[in-house]
Input
Amino acid sequence: MVKYLIIGGSAGGVGAVEAIREVDPTGTIALISEEVFPQYSRPMISEFVSQEATLATMKYRSEQFWKKHNVHAYTGKTALNIDFDKKIVKLDDGQKLEYEKLLLATGGRPVVPQMDGVTKEGVFTFTELASAEGITSKLQHAKSAVVLGGGLIGVSVADALVKRGIKITLIELNDRLIHVVLDEKASELAETVIKATGTKLILSQTVKQILGKQGNPNEVGGVLLQDDTIISCDLVVLAVGVNPRIELVEDSKVEIQKGIIVDRFMQTNIPDVYACGDATEAHDFLVKENRRLPLWPLAHVGGRVAGYNMAGQTTEYEGGTVMSSMNYFRLPIISVGKINPEDSSEYEILVDVQPEKPVYRKIVLKDDVIVGFIFLGEVEKAGILFRLIKNQVNVAEVKEKLLSKDFGIISLPETVRKEMFVVH
Amino acid sequence: MKRISVKEDACIGCGICQVYCTLEHSKSKDAIKAYLKEDPKPVSRIRIETNKPVSMSIRCQHCKDTPCVYACLAGAMTLDKKTGLVIHDPEKCMGCWTCIMVCPYGAVKPDSSGKIIAKCDLCPNLDVPACVTNCPNDALLCETVEE
Ligand SMILES: Cc1cc2nc3c(=O)[nH]c(=O)nc-3n(C[C@H](O)[C@H](O)[C@H](O)COP(=O)(O)OP(=O)(O)OC[C@H]3O[C@@H](n4cnc5c(N)ncnc54)[C@H](O)[C@@H]3O)c2cc1C
Ligand code: SF4
Ligand code: SF4
Output
């Protein structure tokens, strides 16, 4: 019998192992991971493709991590099913593991749109090391690529491929890039920066078919767009989204909507079964509801909280919200919270635009409390605003200063400031 | 654990701490070479904030709850359990700015290459950090605090 069993060894699984060991140095931990090298930084697969990172530098934790934390790591193995009544997980090699507490840190699975030609050679998704290795192995003979999807993952792979000298066409169905975290203006500025690298951007458009190569119809030769334009290319990367991986719980008593539902202690509706990360719908501190927030820091912290609770140290999950930071195409952007409020009459919006740099900073307030911001081009001090959102601080007194050069901790009400510096 | 605290009333916002911080984090430790010739240029890990008549010198607080460590996408920020210091590994940093997003002090910034971050490391090679030694007004204090 294993005391703690974890399925998935990425951000969430690692967070859980570290937290459990802080509380319980000896209880048995076993971890199952389909990936042979689980403890790598998933967001760094684009740096791997661009050759800015190697397998060695993209390690999120060292190879000795499992050993050091006394974890029995079943790597390269898939958990096939779970008997929640008997508390047994069955692996693909026939082994059965009995557990006391279980954590589902199974992450997400890339969406593959149904269309003609998706099975052709040269079509990739982009969510794991294996896809990055697959793409890398093709690059010697590839000159051009189509990236379908202008979200964070699509932009990250486009950036990496541009750095490798590949001609890119980026196709996005929405009328702006990374539409969850950018507004029109931010997207417009990002588009200018991206186009300057020779990348072609096609918005409000999608691919309806992947075409074969002349002479070899099984290999990618191009794509056919909805408006019947044909774009020839040697590679297609599908980056249209990631869905929670819930196949292990789909026909069980575990409550799911799109993702596994967890409470503030990262526990599912089944006792002793916890979940975290991309597989879940967890607390959002801004909207105060459960929602899908597939983000690395939240998966890691969610895993930590699950770990503490599994080991008996009651810990509440603070929650997260829509929050993204990126530095692709050398354009730093940080976006947090509600940046595109639907009913603008209830919100106050402060803006600083310097298109020539480009710099664009926008802060959204409701009743003198910051609910969201975008910092593009200049990201310093973003964390101070993040804290103001998280703590719902009333900023009426300092509103005019929020976007000034001099804004800082010193602008905050003395009580807030003093509380911050009595840390030690 | 070593910590720096700021006496708000004594700080005059002169920026000398920034100059010495930049120098200490340069390769040459020579002001002229550091500012004119080094590539990437060394950057100060301190920010001076002014809200007249008050000024304050701000740097990484080596927080106990380490939001930047939990958020780091690369495993480049770690907490050294022995010293309580939050350490940044430039070799692993992917320059994603996630730590900038979550640091409540705004104490992290991109370095001059724009590819990785820079933040206070409490001058590991010195007994007393350079900013503290060189503050003309004794506005900075280096203390050893209990865990
Ligand atoms: C290219 C890219 C860039 C990204 N950039 C950012 C970014 O800048 N910022 C950010 O916050 N987030 C980013 N993300 C998202 C981030 O990587 C995810 O939110 C995070 O990885 C989620 O962690 P997780 O532990 O929940 O799941 P995952 O990292 O998906 O890990 C789950 C693991 O469980 C394994 N697994 C699943 N089911 C089973 C099973 N039945 N048996 C065995 N093993 C199983 C999987 O193989 C996988 O290894 C990016 C993602 C990608 C792909
Ligand atoms: S970088 Fe910021 S969040 Fe991290 S320890 Fe320093 S002050 Fe705290
Ligand atoms: S910028 Fe570097 S240190 Fe900061 S979160 Fe990203 S990888 Fe970690």
About this structure: DSSP finds nine helices and 25 strands in chain A. Residues 283 and 289 of chain A are 6 Å apart (CA to CA). The first helix of chain A runs from residue 11 to 23. The mean pLDDT of chain A is 96.
